[in-house]
Amino acid sequence: MLVSLCVIAYNEEKVLNGLFRNIADQTYPHEKIEVVLVDSNSTDNTLSMMEDFKSTDYGFKDVIITNSDKGSQAASWNAALTKATGDVIIRIDAHASIPRNFIARCIYNMEEFGETIVGGGRPNIVDNETSWKLTLLAAEESLFGSSIANYRRPTGKQEYHDSLFHAAYKREVFEKVGGFNEALGRTEDNELHYRIREAGYKMCSFPDIISFQHTRSTLRHMIKQKFGNGYWIGLTTGVCPGCLSYFHFAPFVFLIMLLVFSVFAGLGYVYPLFYTGLAYLMFDFVNTVICFLTKKVKLPFLLLPILFPILHIAYGVGTLCGLFKMPFWRRKLGKAPFDRITEVKECIIKNNRHNKKESSEV
């Protein structure tokens, strides 16, 4: 099957060379790979690096470079979808790393088991390891510090999930459900996968498929990421609440409990705040010990009990801000983002018909 490997990037000059090496090293026949690169109006050397990659002959069927100037990941992914002509479409984040057999294993499992959407575990990694970066990585990998999403951690068995990261989709999926909702940021995957599940498709994770995501290397960037994630969770409740789970709101609930019980404490009722804080500290301590024992990293791990609440509060504040803004944002949204989903769908179908016509003529 012809594979369209899609990558979007905005100011990613620091990581693109590594990903391009991964793509060039793929064991799947290069003449059956079409690489689609989307530059989202980068101000660094991202575009020139894409052009250098295109100008180097790796034997790919084609390397397509296109631009998206709308400033959102969803819009950039839609730009990639409208250019992709493959039977299978794979989305790879610019901050990712994929092994040499990544595409080959995706296609093998798709054909061998008759699956429409396949993927695998997506653990986090860091560049240029230091004790501090490994501490941030431990916080990101921890169930307590980050997400319970199954796709983040390889399980060693074949199973179905509600969502997959760096997944491979048969073209028919996008022909049926359309493109991404360009009104959303950070949660565009949640909303798309919700529509995919509603359309009757299943997403299968295989133990022999794995890819890696680079963790934010500074606390400032990680706090910004958590705030942004929470913010878009709040906004998404006004567009597609069904694509969110209760776990998405755990940091928000924790934040509200702290605020409410702090007011109670100021009025003399200290026990709610005391017991909430005590319960949190117990989870904080246990997860810090688990990280310390499993990761075996030295001194900076003593900061984990502080890192966990910082990340939780950042996420919770983001959700609070998103929920506050959501009614006003939803009112101004209009129909354009939803119409765009259908436009992308029609473009994908049109491209497929054109490809079939060309194949029959040949």
Description of the structure:
By secondary structure, this protein is α/β, with parallel strands linked by helices. Helices cover 52% and strands 14% of the residues. The protein has twelve helices and eleven strands. The protein has helices at 16-24, 46-55, 73-83, 102-113, 131-141, 171-177, 188-198, 219-236, 250-266, 271-295, 304-333, 336-361; strands at residues 3-9, 33-39, 62-67, 88-93, 96-97, 117-121, 124-125, 159-161, 168-170, 203-210, 212-214. It is globular and about 80 Å long. The mean pLDDT is 90.
What can be said about this structure in brief?
The chain is an alpha/beta fold and 362 residues long.
Descriptors:
362 residues, 8-stranded mixed beta sheet, 3-stranded mixed beta sheet, 11 strands, 52% helix
Describe the SSE topology.
Blueprint: E1 3-9, H1 16-24, E2 33-39, H2 46-55, E3 62-67, H3 73-83, E4 88-93, E5 96-97, H4 102-113, E6 117-121, E7 124-125, H5 131-141, E8 159-161, E9 168-170, H6 171-177, H7 188-198, E10 203-210, E11 212-214, H8 219-236, H9 250-266, H10 271-295, H11 304-333, H12 336-361
Parallel strand pairs: 1-2, 1-4, 2-3, 6-10, 7-11
Antiparallel strand pairs: 4-9, 5-11, 6-9, 8-10
Helix pairs in contact: 3-12, 6-12, 8-11, 9-10, 9-11, 10-11
Number of distinct beta strands: 11
Shape: globular
Beta-strand percent range: 5-15%
Mean residue pLDDT: 90
> What is the ordering of alpha helices and beta strands?
EHEHEHEEHEEHEEHHEEHHHHH
Distance between the termini: 17 Å
Oligomerization status of the protein chains: single chain
